[in-house]
Specification:
9 helices; seven-stranded mixed β-sheet
């Protein structure tokens, strides 16, 4: 499964795959959405998401599916890590939405390095309809909403950036939810600082076009993304992974601390 990635002794720990394994997962691009789904299903299985931890959410007559892999934690409170896997033409993204989809099973493997305090759900979404079906599963069935959601979009083009819409920070009525949003943002800034990545100070079109981030306005959420850059894609993808691996470990620990979600 690759090496054990860990900074200082007190730093969060996560596993990483060998570069050749990651390259084989990224290329060649699957020819259509069905083959994307099949490949992702296989990746999660290969990286120890067993059948009892894997869920298929079918939501249309055409049998379109979301794929969900559960990483159990010490409590039932959920942190969602979500990305769309459908083919999309997004600016100059040669991967057409595939990079962020592949990142999910890689992160699923990474977080198995240590016991996690929250239950993580890694969610591969099939388009806008898949986003709606996933969010409706909380709204319509009386399920407890997730504690937080990390949305991935167009990775592998640059060092990672992050964004929270102002409405998500300011209009949340619950003080606890507002505090979680603040924590998501502060931990992203902390991780970016450690990695030497820029802190996003504006909202590029990618952020404003991400529908999941705005549809889930009642869930504390953050967008992690990349922008068009001249860097080698494999280097950018690895840097995005290292940011996300560390960041997810951090918020797992920080959001489990009552002091971290008390009055901001």
């Amino acid at each position: 499964m690759g090496g054990f990635a860990c900074g200082q002794t007190s730093s969060p720990a996560f596993w990483e795959l060998r570069p050749e394994q990651i390259n084989a997962m990224l290329l060649p691009l699957p020819p259509d959405d069905h083959h994307r789904y099949v490949r992702l299903h296989q990746y999660f299985s290969d990286l120890r998401c067993s059948t009892d931890l894997m869920q298929e959410q079918t939501f249309s007559k055409r049998s379109r599916k979301n794929l969900i892999c559960i990483l159990p934690g010490g409590n039932a409170e959920q942190i969602i890590v979500a990305a769309r896997y459908d083919h999309r033409d997004r600016m100059d993204d040669a991967a057409k939405g595939w990079s962020e989809a592949v990142m999910l099973p890689i992160l699923y493997n990474a977080l198995q390095a240590q016991h996690r305090q929250h239950t993580f759900l890694f969610v591969e979404l099939s388009g806008r309809a898949g986003e709606d079906a996933f969010l409706d599963s909380f709204r319509k069935h009386g399920r407890q909403p997730p504690k937080a959601m990390v949305v991935l979009d167009m990775l592998g083009l640059s060092p990672p950036w992050f964004y929270l819409p102002s409405s998500s920070r300011l209009s949340v009525k619950s003080r606890k939810k507002a505090a979680i949003n603040k924590r998501l943002e502060s931990e992203a800034a902390f991780t970016a600082h450690l990695q030497g990545s820029p802190t996003a100070t504006f909202a590029p079109p990618l952020a404003t076009e991400n529908t999941l981030l705005f549809e889930a306005n009642r869930i504390p959420s953050i967008l992690i993304y990349s922008i068009l850059n001249q860097r080698v894609p494999s280097q950018s993808f690895r840097q995005d992974f290292e940011f996300l691996g560390y960041y997810l470990c951090r918020i797992d620990t920080q959001l489990a601390n009552p002091a971290a979600t008390s009055n901001p």
